Amino acid sequence: MTLRSSEVRRGLAACLWGLTACGVLGGLLVAAIALPTVGGAGITTNTVTRLFTDLPPSPREDPLPERTVLLDRNGKQFAQFYTENRKIVKLDQIAPAMRQAIVAIEDSRFYEHAGLDIKGTLRALVTNTQAGGVRQGGSSLTQQLVKNILVEGAETEAERDRAREPSLRRKITELRYALAMENKYSKPEILERYLNIAYFGAGAFGVEAAAQRFFSVSAADLTLKQAATLAGAVRTPYATDPSLGPQRRHRLRERRDIVLDRMAQLGNVPAAQAKAVKRTPLDIHMRPEPGGCAGSAYPYFCLYVHKELVNNPAFGHTRAARERLLARGGIVLRTTLDPKAQRAAQRAITSRVSAKDTEVAAEAMIEPGTGRIRAMAASKKYGVNSGNAKNGPSTTYNLPADMAHGGGQGFQAGSTFKAFTLATALGRGWRFDDGFMTPGSFVPSGGYFDCHGHRVNDPNTQIFNASGEGSGGPHSISTGTWKSVNIFYMMLERRVGLCQVVKTAKALGVVRADGTPLREVPTFTLGVNEMDPVTVAAAFAAFAARGRYCRPMAIVDIVERDGTHVPVPPSCVQAIERDVADAVNHVLSGVFTKGTMTGQGIGRDAAGKTGTNNGYTSAWFAGYTPDLAAAVSVGDIRGAYRYPLRDVTIGGEYYGQVQGASLPGPIWVSSMEGALGDVEESSFHHPDMSRFGGGYTPGLEKEDKKRDGNGDDRADGQDADAPDERRSLGADRGYRGGRTRWKKHKHQQQQRQQQRHRQPRLRPPAR
Questions:
Q1: What is the residue-wise DSSP string for 520-570?
Q2: Which of 249, 390, 681, 702 could pair with 604 in a Cys bridge, judged by C-beta atoms 3.0 to 4.6 Å apart?
Q3: In what ranges is there compositional bias, type Basic residues (predicted)?
Q4: What is the rounded average pLDDT for all residues in the chain?
Q5: Domain 411-556+571-692 CATH superfamily
Q6: CATH 3.40.710.10 in the chain, residues?
């Protein structure tokens, strides 16, 4: 058959180009008529017959990308991730007006054909030719669904290009898949899939996301006007994007009116109603749908969750699998975030440190015994500064976290590390009142060995006590901790073994913020390693949990697309003995009553340790109750060594020097009071005094005699708030009266001290 009419040629070409499902017979008829036209391409009648009778399976349908939603511990959403803003809904969750509108404008014979609609295609061709533009669709909804599926399923840019290319081969492939889908699914199922996959503009994929984005309503509540607007947007979603200005909105209104006219023409709505709606404005109410963490109310916690999901093998065997899980979305992550604790931490920081300051404060709160992160706050806002300025009120570093979770290199943790030396000493037989004389300065020239057995002495370094710690004299485990005496702890670390202290720290989850190996050097106990608040808070939470260390966790449950719950259990180990942890708590409680944090308690059992670094390069406070642990760091974001915390104004207040108790401590106190306001008070376990009570420190009894005679006379470096040695021993050991009993007890303690110091386990490892 030879085609002589140019009009018929154009009609058949259009029919092949926009092949609409009209059934196998219609497809064969069109192909047979057009055979001479396409014969030059090597297509024969037999080929065409096979094309439309030997159909392939319907295209592979991977789960559509959806939003990944983050919920706090109370079930309230605070963030979402997505590559495509989409929420899949059932057809009965979509307003009837929306279903009618999309069928009317895109495929009015949708319920009549079976995959190919020649009549509809020719009608669209004539209508669009007369109008001089696209007013009606030529491809059926099924074909459009197939195209979207192929684009979504493409794994490379080349595959996506092939799914979109304007070629006869692509249209025939598309048609064959459409016929296969018509055999597989019912019409309502096809319509549901189409409405969930279609792009409507303004970053909204699927009708539910579009309804929320354009009108701040759900798809089930769309009115006629709103439904017609969304149906009009599908054809040219970028040209009618209402978020891109008034010109695009004008185009969208024109498209809405076309949809209303078509619905009236088909009898879906009365003509008068359509005319009345056309006279009204669009009434767009764009609802922000921020994706990622910059738009979250709790950005630092959000960022931690994002990095945890990508980095942690618990959420997928490979990084690619974990990234795909996050990108495809459709899951709900129930997190550990406590909004009350988060607000308390943020208020405590914001009230004392300005976002405009180059000095930054950060805090992390963790639940003892589970590792659940309850709060992550920082003084700067999360995001990019105006003009990409390096220093400003915002930052893209996750300040409370380590580098693996989006943070930076951290700050030296200072004297908070003395807690690990304390725990090591108590675990190796030291008692609360055991101690020794300390000099005014100290050079670590011998006796220090790392965990490889290498000597790591530093004869070129001279250690002094920080301001307020005293310049020397006798100190026990207790007084040396309360006063945070550097030299005492350097000497104690040497006696119990540097490697043993490092092992204790590692058992409590201590790792450097930048992920590199810990620096095993003599000043380890003084906190020369750069840390982050999450790691330090988790380590101190282990003391509160009686030695049970739990890896910090931010996700407790994953709800998959099908509603299946996948719980994420805590990852915990007994890092140190329970009795040793109880003893540590007993000593560190004294920091609030007799030490560097005197007068800054929170009205309940609490323990902690200040951290002031050499040269005031950074300052910390790490503390805890039986119910909550927190760590606060302060340092200059431009570089701690170049910009020490001396002669600085922070939050409008001048500091000659920032110490652990002067800024991080008050932040900790304020935040903990707010976080624990409605939590019933609980107490630490009383330590085993038969194991840890008593002890002997040469020289302390002389200080007692001075106090007996002169009241305030003390040796240089002795804390004015230190306990009376005899009184504490009497209370611990039951000696409550008489100098004879005191002397007898002191002699026994001296003998035990001498025997203990002769034990090989307290000597440095042999080379």
A1: -SGGGGGT-SEE-HHHHHHHHHHHHTTTEEE--B-EEEEE-TTS-EEE---
A2: 681
A3: 736-767
A4: 84
A5: DD-peptidase/beta-lactamase superfamily (3.40.710.10)
A6: 411-556+571-692
